[in-house]
Amino acid sequence: MMFRKIVLSAFAKAQTETPGNTKTQWADHLAISLWCECNYQISRRTLLNYYNNYIEDGDNEELSPNAKMIEMLCKYLGYPNYATYLLHQASMQGVRNDENPQAFTYTLQTESYKEEVTILIRRELVTPRNVA
Protein backbone atom coordinates (compact mmCIF):
# COMPACT_ATOMS: atom_id res chain seq x y z
CA MET A 1 0.00 0.00 0.00
CA MET A 2 0.92 3.65 -0.09
CA PHE A 3 1.34 3.93 3.68
CA ARG A 4 5.09 3.40 3.48
CA LYS A 5 5.47 6.14 0.89
CA ILE A 6 3.33 8.57 2.90
CA VAL A 7 5.27 8.04 6.14
CA LEU A 8 8.66 8.31 4.42
CA SER A 9 7.53 11.41 2.50
CA ALA A 10 6.38 13.06 5.73
CA PHE A 11 9.77 12.38 7.32
CA ALA A 12 11.53 13.73 4.22
CA LYS A 13 9.48 16.93 4.45
CA ALA A 14 10.20 17.22 8.17
CA GLN A 15 13.90 16.82 7.41
CA THR A 16 13.77 19.84 5.06
CA GLU A 17 11.85 21.96 7.58
CA THR A 18 14.10 21.51 10.59
CA PRO A 19 17.84 22.03 11.10
CA GLY A 20 17.96 18.72 12.97
CA ASN A 21 19.86 15.87 11.41
CA THR A 22 18.48 12.87 13.28
CA LYS A 23 15.31 10.91 12.76
CA THR A 24 14.31 11.69 16.36
CA GLN A 25 14.48 15.43 15.63
CA TRP A 26 12.47 14.92 12.43
CA ALA A 27 9.86 12.93 14.37
CA ASP A 28 9.67 15.71 16.98
CA HIS A 29 9.14 18.29 14.26
CA LEU A 30 6.53 16.12 12.57
CA ALA A 31 4.62 15.51 15.82
CA ILE A 32 4.63 19.24 16.63
CA SER A 33 3.57 20.15 13.08
CA LEU A 34 0.70 17.66 13.13
CA TRP A 35 -0.50 19.13 16.41
CA CYS A 36 -0.15 22.78 15.35
CA GLU A 37 -1.41 22.45 11.76
CA CYS A 38 -3.99 19.67 12.10
CA ASN A 39 -4.80 19.54 15.82
CA TYR A 40 -3.75 15.88 15.70
CA GLN A 41 -1.77 14.46 18.60
CA ILE A 42 0.67 11.65 17.99
CA SER A 43 3.83 10.77 19.85
CA ARG A 44 7.32 11.00 18.48
CA ARG A 45 7.81 7.35 19.46
CA THR A 46 4.85 6.20 17.35
CA LEU A 47 6.12 8.11 14.33
CA LEU A 48 9.61 6.65 14.84
CA ASN A 49 8.19 3.13 15.06
CA TYR A 50 6.56 3.53 11.64
CA TYR A 51 9.63 5.16 10.15
CA ASN A 52 11.98 2.49 11.47
CA ASN A 53 9.68 -0.30 10.31
CA TYR A 54 9.52 1.07 6.78
CA ILE A 55 13.24 1.87 6.56
CA GLU A 56 14.56 -1.34 8.09
CA ASP A 57 12.06 -3.79 6.65
CA GLY A 58 11.89 -2.28 3.18
CA ASP A 59 8.93 -3.88 1.43
CA ASN A 60 7.63 -5.59 4.55
CA GLU A 61 4.75 -3.37 5.67
CA GLU A 62 3.71 -5.08 8.88
CA LEU A 63 2.67 -1.85 10.56
CA SER A 64 -0.42 -0.24 9.12
CA PRO A 65 -1.22 3.27 10.35
CA ASN A 66 -4.81 4.02 11.27
CA ALA A 67 -6.98 6.03 8.89
CA LYS A 68 -6.81 9.22 10.94
CA MET A 69 -3.01 9.17 10.96
CA ILE A 70 -2.87 8.65 7.18
CA GLU A 71 -5.31 11.52 6.61
CA MET A 72 -3.27 13.84 8.86
CA LEU A 73 0.05 12.89 7.22
CA CYS A 74 -1.51 13.61 3.81
CA LYS A 75 -2.62 17.03 5.11
CA TYR A 76 0.91 17.65 6.38
CA LEU A 77 2.17 16.80 2.90
CA GLY A 78 -0.15 19.43 1.42
CA TYR A 79 -3.11 17.31 0.32
CA PRO A 80 -6.62 17.87 1.67
CA ASN A 81 -7.08 14.11 2.18
CA TYR A 82 -5.87 10.62 1.27
CA ALA A 83 -8.07 10.43 -1.84
CA THR A 84 -6.43 13.53 -3.29
CA TYR A 85 -3.03 12.06 -2.50
CA LEU A 86 -3.96 8.92 -4.46
CA LEU A 87 -5.21 10.99 -7.40
CA HIS A 88 -1.99 12.96 -7.47
CA GLN A 89 0.12 9.80 -7.35
CA ALA A 90 -1.90 8.35 -10.25
CA SER A 91 -1.39 11.50 -12.30
CA MET A 92 2.36 11.26 -11.65
CA GLN A 93 2.31 7.74 -13.13
CA GLY A 94 1.04 9.07 -16.45
CA VAL A 95 -2.31 7.35 -16.93
CA ARG A 96 -3.00 7.83 -20.66
CA ASN A 97 -5.24 5.01 -21.82
CA ASP A 98 -8.88 6.17 -21.85
CA GLU A 99 -10.15 2.67 -22.62
CA ASN A 100 -8.44 1.20 -19.58
CA PRO A 101 -8.95 3.69 -16.76
CA GLN A 102 -7.13 3.18 -13.52
CA ALA A 103 -9.03 2.63 -10.27
CA PHE A 104 -7.86 2.91 -6.68
CA THR A 105 -9.77 1.52 -3.74
CA TYR A 106 -8.88 2.42 -0.22
CA THR A 107 -10.45 1.78 3.14
CA LEU A 108 -10.76 4.26 5.97
CA GLN A 109 -11.52 2.70 9.31
CA THR A 110 -12.09 4.56 12.53
CA GLU A 111 -13.36 3.32 15.86
CA SER A 112 -16.95 3.98 14.84
CA TYR A 113 -17.15 3.23 11.11
CA LYS A 114 -15.49 1.67 8.09
CA GLU A 115 -15.65 3.37 4.71
CA GLU A 116 -14.46 1.98 1.40
CA VAL A 117 -13.87 4.41 -1.45
CA THR A 118 -13.03 3.62 -5.07
CA ILE A 119 -11.62 6.35 -7.25
CA LEU A 120 -11.71 5.93 -11.02
CA ILE A 121 -9.13 7.90 -12.97
CA ARG A 122 -9.54 8.63 -16.65
CA ARG A 123 -7.25 11.06 -18.40
CA GLU A 124 -7.90 12.79 -21.69
CA LEU A 125 -5.17 14.37 -23.73
CA VAL A 126 -6.01 17.96 -24.52
CA THR A 127 -4.35 19.82 -27.34
CA PRO A 128 -3.47 23.40 -26.48
CA ARG A 129 -5.37 26.14 -28.25
CA ASN A 130 -3.52 28.57 -30.44
CA VAL A 131 -2.85 31.72 -28.46
CA ALA A 132 -3.30 34.88 -30.53
What do these coordinates show?
The chain is an alpha+beta fold. It has one domain (3-121). The chain is built from five helices and two strands. The chain has a two-stranded antiparallel sheet with strand order 1-2. A hairpin with a 4-residue loop joins β1 and β2. α1 packs across α4, α2 (23-38) crosses α3 (44-56) and α2 (23-38) crosses α4 (67-76). The protein is globular. It starts with a helix and ends in an 11-residue tail after the last strand. The model has no long low-confidence stretch (mean pLDDT 79).
Please give the structural blueprint.
Blueprint: H1 3-17, H2 23-38, H3 44-56, H4 67-76, H5 82-92, E1 102-109, E2 114-121
Antiparallel strand pairs: 1-2
Task: Characterize this entry briefly.
It contains 5 helices and 2 strands. The chain is an alpha+beta fold and 132 residues long. The chain has a two-stranded antiparallel ribbon with strand order 1-2.
Please tag this protein with its features.
single chain, 5 helices, 49% helix, two-stranded antiparallel ribbon, 132 residues, alpha+beta
Q: What would the principal axes of the Cα set say about the shape?
A: globular
User: With helices defined by DSSP (H or I, 4 residues minimum), what is the helix count?
Assistant: 5
Secondary-structure element pattern, one letter each:
HHHHHEE
Largest sheet: 2 strands, antiparallel
Helical content stands at 40-55%
* Overall structural domain count: 1
Mean pLDDT: 79
